[in-house]
Amino acid sequence: MKSIARALKPWLVVVVMIMVGWLVRINGNSASESQLLAEIPVDLVNTIEAQKDGRTLRFERKGDAWMQTQPYEQPADPAAIHALLVAMAQARVIQASPIEKLPTRAGLNESAPRVKVVWPSGSATLRVGKSHPAGLAWLENVDTKLGGPGSIELHQLLVEGDPVQLRGAKLFDRSGAASDRVIVQANSGTQRLEVALEKKDGRWFLIEPIEARADNNAVADFLEAVARLEHDGIVDDAPKDLALFGLAQPAAVITIRSLDVSKGAITDEVLEIGGDGPAGPGVRFGKRRDRPGVFQLEKRSLSTLFPPSAAFIDSTILGVDPAEIKSIALQNPNATLRANLTRNVTAWSISIPDQAERPANMQRVRELIQTLCTARACDMATQSIPENLVVAKLAVALSNGSTISVTLGKDSTGRWLANDGGNLTRVYPDTVAFPIEPALFGSSNR
Each residue of 380-402: pLDDT tens digit? Predict the structure, then answer.
């Protein structure tokens, strides 16, 4: 037995050297050592048609972006598209042979995955067969009818992988700075929940479940988070029964209205989310209303899509930048004027009825503006301030010509109450500095 082993060793070395030689040549990117299957100008390709398992996916370049146009229209994943084109452009075989001379085990038959790419002056179609024992894959140029064992990348993308990965997986394509309306609707048992936000003149407002000024940063963070969400994979491209996915009557619908730059129009993106289906509780499927494909959703996506309405409410009193404030009128509970604070070029002045205008105490002005613009509410109430708790009113004039009216109150524990005219009252700790007595602004200026 030892003599047989010694006799086999030289042959094993030869076989290993041959296989290593193939791998070196196929990865050497040298035309003299391996043959390029097709000359493909990656940056000029404008159409891709991928076929696998009887299914055809078509992708077209639209300006700087790629879109899937068959079996339905939706954005593609630019990184995945680029990786496929590079793999095709770099596809090489050890030695090109006529297809009829290749072995049947190569799997280069009509049912094998294939990709056709088109550019303005030409096209190329490559077919991918089975893997090769030497760590390679069988490839074919359908146009030249030449093929052989070659680079593995296309096999990894099309045989081990799936052309559907060329699609974009984002739930929303345009959520972000170009959005101006968000509606989140959900059914919880017999209760229907709705959160509606709308952007007006550059500011966000909560419309449902109550009317209130929204926090622009909170809404922007939500839209950015939603823009990053991706589904967990397509489960059915042409569902015959949406009830199987809990989508016959969606449990939730999220609508985001944004500017579609490609169409030059404002359009809605609508995501439908199913309830419990045959897959059992906890498994959620979704679909875009404008596309037939059903996909699975991650739990992380669901938690991001359904924040509480309170998370959007601006907890500051004014919701403006201090630099926007031109004047502040201090008023009695019945709205009669007590004093007027006015911004000059470098300082503030105070005028009290029947008294001459004079410089205001800058420390007190800064404290007041700080409270109005940056203090955060510790609680909120969906009701106006009772009249017996009202202690003052403010009329704040802004640089854009608008005026914000604020009613101020104090509860029995000394906490400050602020209402800017809606049906929401913001509550602030009694430790907040809130100088509203005119006499406080007339002392020495610091």
Answer: 998 899 999 999 999 999 999 99
User: Residue 365: is it exposed, middle or buried by C-beta count within 10 angstroms (0-12/13-18/19+)?
Assistant: buried
Which amino acid, one-letter code, is at 119?
W
Tokens, residue 207: 């419309």
Q: Which residues contact 81 (CB under 8 A, 6 or more apart)?
A: 48, 59, 66, 166
Structure tokens at 330: 């201090």
Identify the burial level of 328 via C-beta atoms within 10 angstroms of its C-beta, where 0-12 means exposed, 13-18 middle and 19 or more buried. buried
- Nearest CA to 216 among 304, 314, 311? 314
Instruction: List helix spans (H) across 215-340.
Output: 216-228, 299-305
Report the alpha-carbon distance of residue 315 to residue 427 in Å, rounded: 9
CA distance 394 to 403: 10
Radius of gyration for the alpha carbons in the chain, expressed in angstroms and rounded: 34
Amino acid at site 254 = I
DSSP letter assigned to residue 160: I
Q: Where residue 133 falls among pLDDT bands split at 50, 70, 90?
A: confident
Please check the confidence at residue 190 and state whether its pLDDT lies above 60. Answer: yes
Task: Give the confidence band of 189 by pLDDT, cuts at 50, 70, 90.
Answer: low
Whether 87 and 157 have beta carbons less than 8 Å apart is answered as yes
Percentage of residues of the chain with pLDDT beyond 70: 89
313-347: pLDDT as tens digits:
999 999 999 999 999 999 999 999 999 999 988 89
Tell me how far the alpha carbon of residue 235 is from its chain's centroid.
21
Q: Which residues lie closer than 8 Å to 250 by C-beta, 6 or more apart? A: 272, 273, 274, 275
Residue whose tokens read 């491209």 = 237
**Burial tier of 300 (Cβ tally within 10 Å: 0-12, 13-18, 19+):** exposed
The rounded Cα 8 to chain-centroid distance in angstroms is 61
End-to-end CA distance of the chain: 102
Helix (H, G, I), strand (E, B) or coil at 371: helix
269: β partners: 256
Q: Coil, helix or strand for 169?
A: coil
Q: In the numeric block, which tokens belong to residue 212?
A: 């209130």
Taking the C-alpha atoms of residue 46 and residue 205, their distance in angstroms, rounded to an integer, is 43
> Residue 377: pLDDT band by 50, 70, 90 thresholds?
very high
- Average pLDDT, integer, range 47-57: 94
The closest of 38, 160, 51 to 93, measured between CA atoms, is: 38
Residue 437 is predicted with a pLDDT of 87
